[in-house]
Amino acid sequence: MTIQRGSSLLLLALGLVFTQCKNETYQTQSATEAVATAPAEKEYEYDTVPGDPLNARIYTLDNGLKVYLSDYEEAPRIQTYVAVRAGSKNDPADATGLAHYLEHIMFKGTSELGTANWEKEQEELAKIEALYEKYRQTTDEAMRKKIYNQIDSVSGVAATYAIANEYDKLTTAIGAKGTNAYTWVDQTVYVNDIPSNQLEPFIKEEADRFSEMVPRLFHTELEAVYEEKNRTLDSDSRKVAEVINAALFPTHQYGTQTTIGTIEHLKNPSITEIKKYFDKYYVPNNMAIALSGDLDYDETIRLIDKYWGGLQKEPIPAFNVAEEQPIQQPIVKEVVGPDAENVSIAYRTPGINTRDALVVQMISNLLYNGSAGLIDLNLNQQQKVLQSYAYDTPMKDYGTFRLTGMPRQGQSLDEVRSLLLKQLDLIKKGQFDEELITAVVNNDKINTMKAYEENSNRADAFVSAFIYDMPWEKYVNRQEEFASITKQDVIDVANKYFNDSYVVVYKRNGEDKNAQKVEKPAITPVAVNRDAQSDYYKAFMAEQQEVKPLQPVFLDYEKDITEASLKQNIPLLYTHNEDNGLFQLYYILDMGTNNNQKLGMAVNYLKYLGTDKYTAEELQKEFYKLGASFDVFASGDQVYVSLTGLDENFEEGLKLFESVLENPKPNQEALNDMVAGILKAREDAKKNKGVILRQAMVNFAKYGPKNPFNTVLSEKELKATKPQELVNLIKSIPTYEHRVLYYGPRETDNLVETLNENHLVPATLKPVPAEKEYAEIDFNEPTVYWADYDMVQAEMMFLSKSVPYSKDIIPVVRLYNEYMGGIVFQDLRESKALAYSTYSFYSPASEKDRANYLLSYIGTQADKLAEAMAGMQNLLTDMPLADANFQNARASLRNSISTERISNADVLFDYERAKKLGLNYDIRQDVYQSANSMTFDQLQEFQQKYIRNQPQAILVIGSKDKLDFKALEKYGKVKQLDLKTLFGY
């Protein structure tokens, strides 16, 4: 399970005692030479917590910079976060969105990186800054337009000296992954995952990056932020969240300001204010570096001190927390939009560093944990609502707690609201099993173990501790404190905070009459100077010759996977877990809904059924108490039956798991409710633009009017289905030929014995039935398919069918995707400011004999769609040559593969994927061996053969009254797709 920022999982850690110690000196010379010639090396004090699962060392440099380190050799890579303890709450009230915009600007380089002539560029940037100050102080619209034309003109001149994306070129060249950043209310955090042999170049470059801020390519990046704002205006869930926060926090910045900022402030940006913000908050004593991965503690802290230690400590402005007055009665709000209806109830809670906040986290888990919470069992399990959940969001000064529910057909939002509040009342009255608290604690420990298997989660724990000003001792100790929470604590806190002091938001389906958008300014595309290189970049790349390369480790399926045979010759594929006491068990059948449409319905039905020994609710409680969970999933061509949890409870969990498959009890009422829920969920899916574009329209383009997505059971067929029919299907799952996958700590003999004893199968297994195949259609003529949807933006995909899967072209495919990813971003976002989100990639098929596809996406304002389509089409037709980008793409490909390590259960699933493609070896070997020798000519040959002028299906979703249909007609015959055609109902 992945830790999500702001979720209660961030608080999970082991509770132990805090100590301080000093590390030993680090020698780089022989002992004799050191004594004779070298001054004493600096010693670094660090804090630790004995027994800490991360074995973390926390340092504080002389300038106040916090450094969190954890050595965890998951792969020869290091997850890095640079965290600033300032977010949108620190924005000036008259310049909201500033922290977020600064985050974007921090990727534009420095006075040395990203510039071809800093002296001349600096002069133009000063003019732009002055013009923006004049612009934001001017109210006359004609004069504002004139000033903006000046800004646009001067920006074009400044761009001739700039080198776009040079920072990204550096990170790409060293093999960094996941380069990104995020801004939230309390923090701004910069993210990179780097190869361990690139630690020093990376630390040096990051120190340079954070030592100054250069507002390069400002107005084109501002347009990208406009588009990001428009995306939020198209998101009903984001609108609900903003309404909730504004009502809960009428005084504090959590509610009075949004992270992206108001439209008015975005239209009147101030480079001067952004510089002030940078100078105030981007100082070492307000920042932290969090690293987890394959690192040496002593070497790493010395490198960080070497390059970051010279940054100057500065006074940090105090943040005065606004005191919110109690909410005396429910505050009722309404949000209207195209998405499905729901209702949310939200409460204000105390800040994360209080014990009450920890109890709120417990209450959240008692209500909803995905298995045995009150909402899970009383509402979702019993199908009293379509879906519902609860979660807490801890923040520094306050927190929030939220209940959300989606209605069934004919159910009012008030009825859902009442059901949710009744579950909360049960908590307030203490009407819940005290054993549930113990189960929540145990499952939190399991979730922590799972989370800490990934360096991203380990480093993210450091970020949370720093941002919330929580000593590592307290962070680590919170799980022990969490385990000490009593039932009375829960009752007391629930009654203290969860009365009539809530905000309720009714999300209605309909047209938002007050919809806003950020209007597009007149922006002239700027030069990106793809082949230019700064002196800083040249020096950096020259130093790469001194970096010792890492050697790749490829999978050897025969060595990395233990194969055994269970009774009835069932294949067992096994990899050993040497990290912790968790296991994952899978039964896999090569049959799915393409073999039997009702199979998906049957596996969904299973979660509502009990056995001869347990009710459905009791089953969920039993699994949760064991620290285990089971799931059954059906795709078009496979069924996965899975059991995961603590290995110490493996036998008990397996017996319970097998009893569920062997002896489910039919339940007519549960089936009736499930069918009604399916029908309501189908209607809701037709209101989801993501489902319409990415699933319904893509499947229509690939397979035609009858396709895997819209081939569903009719309402009549659903209602005619009998409980016993589905139960028989469930029981039949283990009777077909299948294989077993296991990742865990057990040895082979013990595992085979346990499975043979408990896995219930007949004497003879049946072969799987024939699968219905869907033929992929050829794109004989260019066609534009469009669907009407009430939205500010328009979203578009270019889809091209290519040749069937062939392992021979995979190396050049990987290089093409690496290269074109940067080119598309550079051209459509950096140069032309046409989109916040855009990409293009060639997608190999997931099984042999299926076609590969080229998929290109852009989301933009509807009035920029024509420009965006032309821009994307030009790139697909004439792939530009940018030698620096090409060399970086090639280096990145090798660096990435040399540091990738496929481990744990992923080894098994990588083998599964390879088999479907007819491979018996790790295909990355071919990519790595080819990467250095591939030329741009080969890339161009691939582009000419498989991409240029290939027949296309262009998919567009947007509002009918905003789309430019004349522009669409240039790309082919325009056909509207109605929802019934797309969804099949």
Automatic annotation (TrEMBL):
Q: Which InterPro entries match?
A: Metalloenz_LuxS/M16, MPP/UQCRC_Complex, Pept_M16_N, Peptidase_M16_C
- Domain named Peptidase M16 N-terminal: which ranges? 73-123, 604-692
Tell me the keywords, alphabetical order. Answer: Coiled coil
Give every Peptidase M16 C-terminal domain span: 272-442, 766-877
Q: Which SUPFAM superfamilies match?
A: LuxS/MPP-like metallohydrolase (SSF63411)
Q: Which residues form a coiled coil?
A: 118-145
Record's protein name? Predicted Zn-dependent peptidase
Report the source organism.
Pontibacter ummariensis
